[in-house]
Amino acid sequence: MIIRAATPADAECIALQRYPDEADAAARPAYAAWVAGAIQRGLYAGFLALDGDRGAEQIVAGAGLTLLEWGPSRGDPQPWRARIVNVWTHPDWRRRGLAQGLVTRCLDSARQRGVGRVSLGTSAQARGLYGRLGFQASAAEMWLALPAQDGT
């Protein structure tokens, strides 16, 4: 097993992991372009687990950390926040600790950058994993989708 940092060349694979359903295929190119640029700007730190030797590597799991310039807040003068994103494991490789190891690398990357607060979205299936890593559920988050300025 090889664990390595994601590069801009991995952006299409990361987009496919984020949008695996064909119904979402149209979203992949824009997301891949964003990931490639965010990696180059240092705003995305991704990690990939690969099976196989250097000649025939296959990505079997991944996780990413998106940095957000949030601004200082009460109790935390550090202006950066981070969000864990794109946690994915190939079904044949699940329950082997890959996601936990990759998310831990993301958390280490956040610590190295001085980030004090990390959030994520989760499914019921993954809630135990994140709880073991110290994440706590919050009932306070809400969201709103604003229409585009042209009304769409």
Automatic annotation (TrEMBL):
> InterPro entries from the xrefs?
Acyl_CoA_acyltransferase (IPR016181), Bact_Acetyltransf (IPR050832), GNAT_dom (IPR000182)
Keywords for this protein? Acyltransferase, Transferase
Domain (N-acetyltransferase) ranges = 1-152
Q: Which CDD domains match?
A: NAT_SF
Q: Tell me the superkingdom of the source.
A: Bacteria
Q: Name one GO molecular function term.
A: acyltransferase activity, transferring groups other than amino-acyl groups
Which PROSITE patterns does UniProt cross-reference here? GNAT
Q: What is this protein called?
A: GNAT family N-acetyltransferase
Which organism was this protein described from?
Deinococcus koreensis
At the highest ranks, the source species' classification is:
Bacteria, Thermotogati, Deinococcota, Deinococci, Deinococcales
